[in-house]
């Protein structure tokens, strides 16, 4: 029995032990499994989170980088585009300005050449040696007489004079001041002869004044570094702009403008001709060639600029490409010149008292007119080209047949006649004198 009990006990003990062991083993296995599962899950979760975070970070970084790159690219593209646009605009503006100048001058040149061709064709059809004179003078009106209409008391030496188009106003220049005269009032004998306005322009003497072809501006220059542009569209003219010449140009002796009123040519004491843009008041070109002061200038009908100098030369310029085309030598210093508006002849007033006339197509074709006893100070062609007037230090003005001479009549005034102008209608001319007066003459045909 004891043995049986003992066996039962052992069996029970073994069973209990096995059960406990199995339970413990199962528990441990379960715990280990759970721990492994949890660890794996945590690891997977962490990996996924990290992967997602990394992906998001990479995406954000890539997006930011792309955005920055795009912004930089766009900025660079915009900067480059703006630079290119500005460069192109500047290039186009410069090209257009030169093209416009060249086109206008080329068009004028074509018209002038056609006119000259017609003249040459007519010459070839004539066998008579004197036909040149007869042909040019036919169907023209020559002045027969002049009458003094008014004497304008400027109050100072009148060094420059110009008339408006149409002939309503006369502008006289003395020491620093321009005075404006109304022709309707000066013809009225019941009214005192006095200026209707004045403009203080310069410190020194005014040596040149010019009304632009559009009749909007009066340009004044002289013994000063400044050139003054006045607005004459208002009842009281005002100074619109002051152009400062380069330091070497201590004085300006003559002015001319392009037919479109865009460009101004100023002849200076330093031997240069300066080209200005009237609209912008900027110096755009400099023409160099003369070796002494440039005293006078005029435009040809085809847009060439003709200049005369104390260096005893006349030079003809193609101002578009800034090119000197022709140089003509003379026997003495040149004080004045004029270009015929009809045919290619120029008349030059010399210090020697001679009026020297040259044919531009053949500068050896020359006429010398003798009538003055002292230097010829000013010269002006009538708009018709049929006649021209010269004035001199000998107190005398002379009217000549155009384009190349033949004295019609003359008159002596009380002092040197420094300047003159002819009205756009051709019926009046004005002289400025050293006795502080300007004289207005009416022409009888």
UniProtKB/TrEMBL annotation:
Coiled coil: none annotated. WD repeats lie at residues 254-286, 287-327, 369-401. It comes from Anaeromyces robustus. This is WD40 repeat-like protein. GO terms for molecular function: transcription corepressor activity. The keyword Ion transport does not apply. Pfam families: WD40 (PF00400). Signal peptide: none annotated. The lineage of its organism: Eukaryota, Fungi, Fungi incertae sedis, Chytridiomycota, Chytridiomycota incertae sedis. GO terms for cellular component: nucleus; transcription regulator complex. InterPro entries: Groucho_enhance, WD40/YVTN_repeat-like_dom_sf, WD40_repeat_CS, WD40_repeat_dom_sf, WD40_rpt.
